[in-house]
Write a structure and sequence with these properties.
Elements: H1 3-9, E1 21-22, H2 29-49, E2 52-64, E3 70-82, E4 85-92, E5 96-98, E6 110-116, E7 120-127, E8 133-139, H3 143-157, H4 162-167, E9 173-180, E10 189-195, E11 206-214, E12 220-229, E13 235-244, E14 252-261, E15 267-279, H5 289-292, H6 295-309, H7 313-318
Parallel strand pairs: 1-9
Antiparallel strand pairs: 2-3, 2-15, 3-4, 3-5, 4-6, 6-7, 7-8, 9-10, 10-11, 11-12, 12-13, 13-14, 14-15
Length: 330
Amino acid sequence: MIGLFMRAALIPTLLVLGCYNAAPGDETPTAREQFLAEWPKAYGEAEKINRDVDVEVNSTHENYTEDGSRWTEKQQMIVKSRGDMLMQQITRWPPEGNLPPSFVRPKAVEIGIDALNDQCSFSLRRQEDAPWKIIFVRSANDVSTRRALEMQGRANIFSPWHSLATLYPRLGFHLDSVEAADEGDTKLVKVSFTFSPQKGDEFIAVRHGWMLLDPKRRWAIRRSQLHLESPSGEAATAEDVIEYRGADDTIPVRETSTLQHEGKNRGVKSTIEFTKYERRVVPVVNSLWQLTGWKCQQIALSTALALSKNTTARNRRRCKFPTPAACPRT
């Protein structure tokens, strides 16, 4: 799921148990009781087993607009998670096709690296063979920056759960119905809900919808339909289908998303291929760059650690900020 709506709506959030407003209805009681009893535990297990993981995602986004413009965008995301440490590399290729007149076409491949650990976060960017540029280096005290990096980086790791995990713990979440929805021999559960944004929920575009969950796969999402509304009042519908590897684990293989703006011939269809999804158990070290291997991250991280540890003006002057030329082209 992409675009303004989905970037705002699908944000991984730590689970806070017990914060839901359930109302009686015609749903199957056993399905409802099973969901309320098992889903929080299953998501907690998913968070635990996916803390040390390497994920590689290749995505293709087919866009269309009312003026007849049609174009395709491709990107790759590599995510490495080690406990609370996170690194993601995003590569975007120039779009192909008939772009809208107002669209500024990038002329080169764009590569970005965002990383964080328990002491700092930083962001690097470059175009094709150009030197790395350090966008920012910030201490762990910058909560908003860390939150933004985690939301984007962990979205692919927790793809089977993240949209429900974002909504479930919030006061505005209302569980409308929970019912059995078997497909052949597979026993699934359909969860329908409405969401009324409260203070602090401005970034969530979902208003109501349903999700088809698989209890045998830690209650992962198989299909979903979400109705969205932007801050300006524009409405859209997002439909999502997730396919999984094998029959005994929750490892996504392919995710297909369709975002259609209501009343307009505008939207995007995304095909997301999980070409790598490996869970790893490795020792936690203090320097994130030792896990990733990008030399430029070592430079950025060293700067961040120095700035965060040395608070006096004298010590800050000793920490010279690296210039783009200092970053190797690797």
